[in-house]
Amino acid sequence: MTTDSKSTDSNGKQALLAQPRGLCAGVDRAIEIVERAVDVYGAPVYVLHEIVHNRHVLENLSARGVIFVKEVEEVPANSVMIFSAHGVSDSVVEQSKARKLIVIDATCPLVTKVHLQAKLYSGNGREVVLIGHQGHPEVEGTSGRIQGKVHVVGSVEEVAEIEVADPDRLAYVTQTTLSVDDTRDVILALQQRFPTIKGPDLKDICYATQNRQNAVREMTSKIDLLIVVGSQNSSNSNRLAELGGRSGLPAYLVDDPADVDPAWLNGKTSIGVTAGASAPETLVKKILQRLKELGVSAVKELDGEPENVVFHLPAFPPDSRTTTPS
User: Fold this and answer.
1) Distance in angstroms (rounded) separating the CA atoms of residues 73 and 176
2) Which residues contact 217 (CB under 8 A, 6 or more apart)?
3) How many separate domains does the chain show?
4) Judgement on whether residues 200 and 212 belong to the same structural domain of the protein
5) Lower CB count within 10 Å: N or C terminus of the chain?
C-alpha cells in the first residue's frame, strides 16, 4: 500500500519500506554459487575478493568454510576458487589456469555484458572510457579485459583531463553499480567534448541500481529520515544514502542494528528504509526490529517496480582432485 504523506498511524512513528530494495539477481546468484560450491566440493572454497560487498554475507559464508583472498597466489594449487560478482581481469584468469585451480565464475551477467561491449569497442580500434570509481573491483576487472587504452573517469571534471590519440575513435562503458542518474552528467560531458563517441544504450545500465534509486527518490516526500541498509564499501548503497542527502533528508548507511542511533529518531515520525543490492532481506528485518524497539509502531511497504529477473547458475567443473587418470 502506498502512503501519500508523512502521516503516521495513531500510535506514533512509522517506517516506510522502499520497493524494490536489497539483493539483486546478480548478487543472489553469486551467493548461491558459493553456497553450492561448498556443498559440491566441500570446504575450503576460496573466493577472490569479497563475493559481494556485505559484511554479514561474508561472515555467514566464512562460517561454512569459505576463504576470501585478495590475490590468486594466496590460493593453494588445485583448489576451488570462485570469481566474485564484480568480475576479474584476463590476467587473473591466466593466473588461475597456471595454478590449475578449479574455477567457478560468479561474475554478474550484466558485468559480463559490459566486458563484452568494451572488448568489442577496443577490438574495433577505439580507446575505451570506463565511467566508474577508480579502484573498485568491477572497474579493475573491466579494465583488465580490454587490450587497448582505457580511461577511467568518475566525474565531469575528469572528462576534461582525458588525453586521447584520436577523438573520433572513442567509446564508453559504465560500471554497473552506477545508475543512469549517476552517469548522465559524465556521459553528456563526454558527448560534448567528443561528439562521435560511441556508447551502449541506456537500457543496458543495471536495472537494479536504477530501480533502487528510483524507489528512494519516490519516497523522499513521504519521510523525514532515510536509513540505508548496506556496508560502507558498497558502491550502490552509498549512492542511495547520497541521494537521500541531496533531497535534504538526514540519511544514514547502516550495516548492523547496533549502528542505528536512537537520537536519529528524535522528532521524526516517518522513517524511510531501503537496502543496497548486496544487503540481504534478513538484515533489513533486523533493522526494522531495532526501529520497533526505538518506538516505530508501524511498517508499511511502498509500491514500486517489480523485479522478476533470474540469472541461471553456471556449470560447475568436475573435481579434478578426485578424477583418476586414465
Assistant:
1) 28
2) 243, 247
3) 3
4) no
5) C
Q: What is the CATH number of the domain that holds 94?
A: 3.40.50.11270
Does 237 fall in a domain?
yes
Per-residue pLDDT of the chain (326 residues; tens, 9 = 90+): 334 445 444 458 999 999 999 999 999 999 999 999 999 999 999 999 999 889 999 999 999 999 999 999 999 999 999 999 999 999 999 999 999 999 999 999 999 999 999 999 999 999 999 999 999 999 999 999 999 899 999 999 999 999 999 999 999 999 988 878 889 999 999 999 999 999 987 666 788 888 999 999 999 999 999 999 999 988 889 999 999 999 999 999 999 999 999 999 999 999 999 999 999 999 999 999 999 999 999 999 999 988 988 999 999 999 988 755 44
Q: Which domain holds residue 232?
A: 13-24+207-301
Is the whole model's pTM more than 0.85, yes or no? yes
Distance CA 277, CA 177 (A): 9
Kind plus residue range of the DSSP H or E element containing 288: helix 281-293
